[in-house]
Specification:
4-stranded mixed β-sheet, mainly alpha
Length: 739
């Protein structure tokens, strides 16, 4: 039962962070009448701690060490204590929230231990892109000051989005838990954060519609929302009732209908239905367990949506009644001064900060949530001075808060491609940032788009029907002052209805963009894959929240044939996304009856004992971050396992990944012959020159090196350096150079 004690130790770290940041959360989310946003405290704390140590590390003021993190946490504890002292008066309404907070904390604990157990059935940090994610975190863990080193392209810093990985490394350092265990606990933490934050967000929205809604019903809606967004899929599970189709060659489901046939269903196809594209969602991410930026950003995104909800429901449109130029000018400056004293503008600064966090965590999300925020401002303020003041404030805040990251980051996006450009444009090839590439034309069949987004489209249509029906009923009964129905009361809140409208509309917009535009990267056939992936991922979360609120609004329609038909349609379409985890989890993790194991390094010990011993030796004996030499290999292979599991940079790593991150295949391509020479050359002087060039301290010679380099010259390393470690099975050796 050691895994329970380790998970509990991890949980205590999270609990302390949550308690420390509860006063600030309570102040910011005081309008959340169900729980004052309590589940957000952990996420808010992780973000502020991570950003603080990141900036202090960039300016070389504070090293990234456990004492430093504890020191910064203590500073935040003092700040939050002062906030508590200033707002310590707790009214009876807040005392009544204690049961809600207890329920949410128990839900967090359950989800943390639940997904920890799931991961324990196959905890390996192996396969897909786990080496990359784990390597990033290990590099950060070894970093004294930022930016962290790129483990696969020494001596350059990481040129990718790593703020999420920094937040994971922070939790590993604070909890003092082994990194290969922490990897799996981080995934379970993100799951637990996201479940409880969605739970809170959904309940607080529907509580605004009906403050008298019973706790039991509110909890049910909250759980349904948390389940759908974190565990649900799309309508692809309809293929469970077909004969199946070959991977990457989808057939319309109505052509292959059969009885229930789960053996023909392959869960990853739900994220690769449209050829040459990616359209993932959180549930799939949790199952395959790659800790990419889009996964780290899930709880961060939910925090941004919560802030936008507060702004949207607390702001009022400013109307300028000035009649002449003088009064207009005077009004202009008065409104600017007024804005800079308002809570809303402070929130705008924080939204700029969050946009920077999104950008540093998963770059696409930065502009996505800047655009969503601007859309919210437009709904609130129209084309007005206040609108422009808030946009300028948002953008300036974003630039300033992202500067510590962007100062060292070189964007590798080369333009905005136009899908299916006509010939007269492909002849031009480029206009400004827009690219017109001949042959790049992919149109998604409508039926495939419906499989991906059909449930949300149906929910949006139902929401529009309810909205229009309610507006008509209110118009007919506007003089009836005794009308007390919950639905009528909810419908009169135009701002809240418009907030849901924005979530639906903006998400629909995100899913349509890849049909017309794509962000240019290095992939030829999959040229719009990342664009569809990043935009669709965010659309899934936003439409998921709006859909469950729509589910709640259904109950307020007058009971009639229409009500029952709409309810049946909604529930039927909800069924297919809801059953996804019952097939994805067993497919990846099996029957969940294995011995519990949290250490993601165990697979290495079982399959490559010599590599495991080399990793353990380096992690135990080398506390700095010198360069190692190991065999260079292609992306998604087992090469670069030593650098990934130690955080020690190597000369050249996964080729395609570095190509993507740095915009050229040459960055690794030119180093590959040099790595070959280092292992195979008999020229001692040439080898010494390359050692000096890359400042190599350790040389790994193990099974993969012997396979990769058939002419490997191991004897020369005894002349250039010394043997410092040999594995127990004799297959692996580690040499230290005379550098």
């Amino acid at each position: 039962m050691d895994w329970i004690l380790i998970t509990f130790q991890w949980y205590l770290t999270l609990l302390i962070i949550g308690i420390v940041f509860t006063p600030l959360t309570r102040k910011v989310f005081k309008s959340f009448k169900y729980d004052f946003g309590y589940p957000i405290a952990k996420t808010l704390g992780i973000i502020l701690l991570s950003y603080s140590v990141f900036v202090l590390g960039i300016v070389k003021v504070l090293p990234f060490s456990r004492p430093s993190l504890i020191f910064v946490l203590c500073l935040f504890a003092i700040i939050n204590w002062l906030i508590y002292k200033k707002n310590k008066k707790i009214g009876p309404d807040e005392i009544n929230l204690v049961p809600s907070i207890i329920i949410e904390e128990l839900l967090f604990i359950f989800c943390l231990f639940f997904w920890t157990f799931i991961r324990s059935q196959e905890p390996s940090i192996h396969g897909l892109e786990k080496f990359m994610d784990f390597g990033f975190m290990n590099s950060i863990l070894r970093t004294e000051f930022f930016p962290p080193k790129d483990i696969w392209y020494s001596p350059e810093p990481i040129n990718y989005y790593y703020f999420g990985h920094l937040s994971g490394a922070l939790l590993i350092k604070l909890s003092n838990i082994k990194a290969s265990i922490g990897y799996n606990l981080i995934l379970a933490t993100i799951f637990a954060q996201s479940v409880t934050q969605v739970f809170s967000l959904v309940i607080n929205i529907i509580k605004r519609y009906d403050q008298k809604l019973s706790q039991f019903k509110a909890i049910i809606y909250g759980l349904i929302g948390a389940y759908l967004i974190n565990l649900g899929g799309n309508l692809h599970t309809i293929f469970l009732f077909t004969k199946g189709y070959p991977n990457e060659t989808p057939i319309p489901f109505w052509k292959i209908l059969s009885g229930f046939n789960p053996t023909a269903y392959w869960y990853p196809n739900a994220t690769r239905l449209i050829p040459f594209t990616i359209h993932e969602f959180p549930s799939y991410s949790y199952v395959v367990a790659d800790l990419h930026g889009h996964v780290f950003d899930i709880p961060f995104v939910l925090l941004t949506l919560a802030i936008l909800l507060i702004i949207f429901t607390s702001s009022q449109k400013l109307k300028v009644k000035s009649q002449n130029l003088k009064s207009k000018v005077k009004s202009f400056f008065q409104q600017i001064l007024t804005n800079f004293n308002q809570f809303q503008l402070i929130s705008t600064v924080f939204l700029g900060f969050m946009a920077a966090v999104h950008y540093m965590t998963n770059a696409f999300d930065g502009p996505i949530y800047i655009l969503l925020t601007i859309m919210v401002f437009f709904f609130l303020f129209g084309i007005s001075i206040k609108f422009f003041v808030n946009i300028v404030t948002l953008l300036i805040s974003f630039v300033l808060f992202s500067l510590p990251f962007s100062w060292f980051f070189k964007p590798f996006v080369s333009g905005i491609g136009v899908n299916c450009s006509p010939k007269f444009l492909t002849d031009l090839k480029k206009i400004g940032p827009f690219l017109f590439e001949a042959g790049n034309c992919q149109i998604s069949p409508f039926w495939m788009l419906f499989i991906l987004w059909g449930f949300f489209w149906i929910s949006f249509a139902i929401f529009l029907f309810i909205r229009s029906r309610t507006s008509r009923d209110l118009s007919l009964q506007k003089n009836n002052k005794t009308m007390k129905s919950v639905f009528a009361k909810a419908s009169t809140d135009k701002q809240l209805n418009n907030f849901l409208l924005i979530l639906f509309s903006f998400s629909l917009f995100l899913t349509i963009i890849p049909e017309f535009f794509y962000i240019k990267d290095i992939y030829p056939q999959h040229f719009r894959a990342n664009t569809m992936f990043k935009l669709g991922y965010q659309a899934f979360t936003m439409m998921g929240i709006a859909s469950i609120v729509t589910f709640y609004l259904l109950k307020n329609i007058k009971k009639s044939i229409i009500y029952y038909l709409i309810s049946i349609v909604f529930i039927v379409f909800l069924f297919f996304p809801s059953i996804y985890p019952y097939f994805s989890v067993p497919s990846y993790y099996g029957k969940l009856d294995r011995k519990v194991q949290l250490d993601g390094q165990v697979w290495l010990k079982d399959n490559n004992l010599e590599d495991n011993e080399i990793v353990d030796y380096l992690n135990k004996n080398e506390k700095q971050q010198p360069v190692i030499l190991e065999a260079q290999g292609d992306s998604y292979t087992d090469y670069e396992r030593i650098s990934a599991f130690t955080g020690l940079p190597t000369v050249a790593g996964w080729w395609v990944h570095e190509w993507l991150w740095r915009g050229s295949s040459d960055v690794v391509g030119k180093r590959i012959p040099e790595v070959v020479s280092l292992y195979e050359s008999n020229d001692i002087d040439e080898t010494k020159s390359l050692i000096d060039k890359y400042q190599i301290k350790y040389v790994v010679i193990s099974r993969l090196e012997r396979q990769k380099y058939p002419n490997l010259n191991e004897e020369k390393w005894l002349k250039i350096g010394k043997l410092i470690f040999k594995s127990s099975n004799g297959f692996g050796a580690l040499y230290q150079t005379n550098l």
